[in-house]
Amino acid sequence: MSATTADTHVFDVREDNFEAEVLQASLTTPILVDFWATWCGPCKTLGPMLEKLAAEFNGAFRLAKVDVDKSQQLAAMFGIRSIPTVMLVKDGQILDGFQGALPEGQLREFLQRHVQPLDGAANDELEAAPESPEETINRIQQAIAAEPERAELKLDLALALMRAGNADAAEAELASLPANLATDARAVRLRSQLDLARALKGAPSLAELQQRVQADAGDWAARDLLGVRLLLEGDAPAGLDQFLVTLEKARDWNDGQAKKRLLAAFTTLDDAELVGRYRRRMASLLF
């Protein structure tokens, strides 16, 4: 796709046109930069969704495609270590980004934080109810049935099952992945999530754990499970805070489990700023 085509919202970019087509152009229109490669399975899932959203947003942002094999210097300049990696460039600066093939609902949420669509149709899409976990699982299962040779879809299914709270099914899908996907960053993150989820088998409810910690601040077992439950139920900062309290007050409890929990949690989280902040807090307690 030519970068000089005036009426397109998606274009290819390399070292020789990056400054003009991305950095300079972002002064007037946000540019979403997709670092990808032809051999990357998750890229084949993410790319079409990004292109679809670029069309729906109708020029509110433009999508720049960077083939990392053809633009190795550009990939190195931005420290790209895994693909797909997506960065949003606005006013000549990297504003936000993510790694991995996010579901379409999360892509819309990401864009909505920074970009306003230019037509009513896109707004209608954004205001529609997000895809439920069950709908996501059903959509991916249908895609697998239609294209069983696309092994990366099994990783998408494992992630969707985990988000729906079906850890056993997610673990089964993860175990069936081919070797090249078993080391994918998303698979590594899912393994950490499953390790944390196992700790909650037979665990008390959130309310009961909170009551136990309020009644006895030194109930480290309850505090540990409370941290895991908060983390997996979507309140990551509150969960990490529980582990930090244990690290500060009872560092050696259960063979240093608080530190292990924190390191596992960092692997599961996508929020680099949050992880960085809590890594520094952990380091301040350890050193």
UniProtKB/TrEMBL annotation:
Keywords: Disulfide bond, Electron transport, Redox-active center, Transport. GO terms for molecular function: protein-disulfide reductase activity. Pfam families: Thioredoxin, TPR_19, TPR_20. The keyword Metal-binding does not apply. GO terms for biological process: response to stress. One of its GO terms (cellular component) is cytoplasm. SUPFAM superfamilies: Thioredoxin-like. Residues 1-116 form the Thioredoxin domain. The keyword Protease does not apply. InterPro entries: Thioredoxin (IPR005746), Thioredoxin-like_sf (IPR036249), Thioredoxin_CS (IPR017937), Thioredoxin_domain (IPR013766), TPR-like_helical_dom_sf (IPR011990). Belongs to the thioredoxin family. This is Thioredoxin. It comes from Dyella japonica DSM 16301.
